[in-house]
Amino acid sequence: MALVMGALAAGESVTRAAVAAEVGLTRATVSTLVDELLAAGLVEEQGAQRPGTVGRPGTVLALTESGPAGIGAEIGVDHLAACAVDLRGRVRVRAERPAANRGRGADAVLAELAALTGDVIAQAAAAGLTPVRTTVAVPGLIGPDHGTVLRAPNLGWEDVPLAAAFGGQDLDTAVENEANLGALAELWLGGHDGRLTDFVHVSAEIGIGAALVVEGRLFRGARGFAGELGHVPVRPEGPRCSCGATGCLETYAGEEALLRAAGVTTGRGAALKAAAVAGDPSALRALEEAGAALGIALSGAVNLLDPQAVVVGGPLADLAPWLLPGVRRELAVRVTDRRWRAQDVLISRLGHDGVLRGAAYSSVRTVLDDPAAWIRNLTDQAADPASGTGS
Amino acid sequence: MALVMGALAAGESVTRAAVAAEVGLTRATVSTLVDELLAAGLVEEQGAQRPGTVGRPGTVLALTESGPAGIGAEIGVDHLAACAVDLRGRVRVRAERPAANRGRGADAVLAELAALTGDVIAQAAAAGLTPVRTTVAVPGLIGPDHGTVLRAPNLGWEDVPLAAAFGGQDLDTAVENEANLGALAELWLGGHDGRLTDFVHVSAEIGIGAALVVEGRLFRGARGFAGELGHVPVRPEGPRCSCGATGCLETYAGEEALLRAAGVTTGRGAALKAAAVAGDPSALRALEEAGAALGIALSGAVNLLDPQAVVVGGPLADLAPWLLPGVRRELAVRVTDRRWRAQDVLISRLGHDGVLRGAAYSSVRTVLDDPAAWIRNLTDQAADPASGTGS
């Protein structure tokens, strides 16, 4: 059933025959599985295939828009957001509000986020969706249980049992690092039709967020700390970094360093972008130099990992027109053993919403990955309505 | 059967009961499989288990020393070598000779290597072993078919169809990059009891060879070019590198740079080591600086990949006493998000033989990984002796 759901998630205008060809099962087996998914309301029929195809036209199948919804929530340094996506990955409900979260205390932040998320869950339910799980994106280091924030320096958090504290929603809660979710969003929703499976994803809010996707999976490293591009040395004798070392990428291309170099004192990325659009020489020079530093660090990553591409996403994508020349120049010179082309650096199409959509879609993927568990749960609820989860 | 062979390869004094516990099969199934492996001569009984264990003592099983042999061959810049290892990974035959291979031409090099390897194969057969395959280690970039050397700059080779040219041995031949084989040797034969599965392996002959092992497998990257530590930028404004970029690790810690900085004009690593042992200040300073550069590049790799350890192997291990202080100092300062300890940098116990043993063991692993194919081949040969492979 997961294979069938996966084939429907990946394709458009898919028939039973096409699913069978895709997943390597017999037409009869696929029909049986599809019947179960239709009965459970996870899949729907959309009428006959377009004429012009060979043979008897099949019925086009699609994932439902009215079944499970994945909930995503995001804790930024100066905003909170939540959204619900359906099985197709489309955003159905979205809420966002500014919030000064730095040093505010986890309790207050989580209470406000829980209220915002509760509204989104209620609206999703009112729209006929069944929320299945909440994934919270945090700019910090997450424990291996995916429930605890070990450390989020930009929020001032240490050892926050987020999933437990976030309760009261009747939904399971998972916590994940925002850079990882940005990369997964690119993998799942970036519009690459499953062809982009090995890449380095770079984004930035305060620090430099990066994550590695290898063979279509997040690459976490032996202890879950992989992807720390921000502390790759660019110039070992360079400026002191907040991590204690010197010359890390963050000291050249982190937001704080970038704003200081550009002489932008109020506002953040948006103010820097405005200065660049206006042709301010300090802003242009700062972005050029940050782009070169990013390219130097990425050259090391590409030489080590040999990914298909580097993807620039998140807030950093807004600054891409000014950063990318430096990034591409350094990669062209420094990547050995393969011809690195300018087009191997991609700009994400997901914009600022990547992390939030990645969080919500990772929630709904629990149903895509195990539809049988969802169906069992439906059956159990029908037998004993009080025991169910969901709203 | 592969699971049983794997359990025997990993453990000592293993009984049928221990194999069953290890691989999660019933005792009866394991006994049946062991009987087939005993009949095929891949496994042997070594008498009763030591007293002191609980319950009825079992019979200790071991991989045979007299069955298949893996053949390894190595093309260095100034030497050729070949060896045979048995299923236990022990070197049974070994031959080596000096050879000035740089710019000598692939035909001459391969003819000499084929003669050397032929002697090793003949001696292995005379010792009652059955050679199964030859793996040739080359300091260069290997094509995805593992038959062609795409580029080996230190030999002056381009597009050499090595596996085809190396024929006439009656054995299949595979070609692999020497740095990859060094890392695999560490994984398989490094004495880590299967606990070291995620590491960066650094060795060096002329360039800096490195390879990544992730979850117990070689990490090759999207196009097979992963592990290029030698061209990770250390100081982007540094010396011009042979690759065309500037400030790559190789310009600080590659053999040529190191010998020049140390003022060693004749001899290679051994001469440098002698100078260091004698306390020559230039040699000590050169090694200290190369160690620091290696540490800077490795910090980037560790921050990106979060391996369990970094292993220094190959000829580089000889220089470890002088290189490691700088390596460890830079890693201690620059690795973020986890406490990096001095003991997370290991020195390989395999010494200079790592690459060659890795090549030979990767040959014999074809039997460990698929004993059924070996047994089928034996049966076919018995039925039609003329059709068999092996000598």
Automatic annotation (TrEMBL), chains A, B:
<dbReference type="Pfam" id="PF12802">
    <property type="entry name" value="MarR_2"/>
</dbReference>
<protein>
    <submittedName>
        <fullName>ROK family protein</fullName>
    </submittedName>
</protein>
<dbReference type="InterPro" id="IPR036388">
    <property type="entry name" value="WH-like_DNA-bd_sf"/>
</dbReference>
<dbReference type="InterPro" id="IPR036390">
    <property type="entry name" value="WH_DNA-bd_sf"/>
</dbReference>
<dbReference type="InterPro" id="IPR000835">
    <property type="entry name" value="HTH_MarR-typ"/>
</dbReference>
<dbReference type="InterPro" id="IPR000600">
    <property type="entry name" value="ROK"/>
</dbReference>
<dbReference type="Pfam" id="PF00480">
    <property type="entry name" value="ROK"/>
</dbReference>
<comment type="similarity">
    <text>Belongs to the ROK (NagC/XylR) family.</text>
</comment>
<feature type="domain" description="HTH marR-type">
    <location>
        <begin position="3"/>
        <end position="47"/>
    </location>
</feature>
<dbReference type="InterPro" id="IPR043129">
    <property type="entry name" value="ATPase_NBD"/>
</dbReference>
